[in-house]
Design a protein that fits this description.
By secondary structure, this protein is an all-alpha fold. Helices cover about 80% and strands about 0% of the residues.
Length: about 270
């Protein structure tokens, strides 16, 4: 039972590496697969920041939530600059210019609005705009790749986003913020997540290591999905809220490893 409470050690280490690495380690985009990976990570970060903010609105596990929020903001801004600078086409540069403007508005909500039920609707509207543009950029980079592996990097990266999106909507529903919409979005994301994992598992490019990591992700999914199923609007407890946060972080770590493995294949 404790496994649902504690961030998996390897997951914590990976997340620390992803969002807390020295700037030099993330100084530039290496190739088009790396661009798709980082562009897709921007989608995930948009949802992870909202999740952390909503965690603070619940007044539960404040330190992990604050750390996740601060780290995610730093990584989002660093990758935004990298992806705009690397953009090989004018339309991609335009997308990231638009994303900069949307991000500015979203960051204002994240850093100035007191996390609360009253401010949650504004947060969800702002994160939706950032997510849409981050997704647009990812799709554009996939098109620039023009290779099947580029699509798989995009799909794997989107799994990271879905893990955070489901957690975000679960925490919103627990605050009784448009609970009906949240429930619908969680169900939709759940189906998309399971379908995409099967695609990643059966893809011709999947290596034994990728399939092994996907099997580990399946185990993390069991705990995360169980936490989602226990969602009760207006009747949340510290335990329920914490389980959603922790299990989503562990699933995110597994899917980040899978994405990295696909991105490491020949571009």
């Amino acid at each position: 039972m404790q496994r649902r409470w504690i961030l998996n050690a390897s997951a914590g280490a990976l997340l620390a590496g992803a969002v807390g690495a020295p700037v030099a380690a993330w100084a530039q985009v290496q190739d088009v697969n790396d661009a798709i990976n980082k562009a897709g990570r921007q989608r995930m970060l948009s949802q992870r920041m909202a999740k952390a903010w909503l965690m603070l609105a619940h007044q539960a596990d404040a330190n992990p939530a604050r750390q996740a929020l601060a780290q995610s903001i730093k990584l989002f801004e660093r990758q935004l600059a990298e992806l705009k600078a690397y953009a090989p086409q004018a339309d991609i540069r335009t997308t990231y210019t638009e994303l900069e403007a949307a991000w500015s508005a979203y960051k204002t909500v994240l850093t100035t609005a007191q996390p609360s039920k009253d401010a949650a609707s504004s947060l969800l509207q702002a994160d939706a705009k950032v997510l849409a543009l981050a997704h647009q950029g990812t799709v554009q980079y996939e098109a620039a790749s023009g290779k099947p592996v580029g699509h798989l990097v995009n799909v794997a990266g989107r799994q990271r986003m879905l893990s955070q999106r489901m957690a975000k909507f679960c925490l919103a529903a627990m605050l009784q913020v448009d609970a009906a919409t949240s429930t619908t979005e969680i169900d939709k994301a759940r189906k998309e997540f399971l379908s995409a994992n099967e695609l990643l598992r059966t893809a011709p490019q999947a290596t034994d290591r990728i399939r092994q990591e996907l099997q580990l992700a399946d185990g993390q999914w069991v705990f995360f999905d169980a936490a989602l199923q226990r969602m009760q609007t207006g009747a949340n407890t510290f335990r329920q809220v914490s389980e959603v946060f922790v299990t989503s972080e562990n699933l995110l770590a597994s899917m980040d490893r899978v994405t990295g493995m696909y991105a490491a294949l020949a571009a």
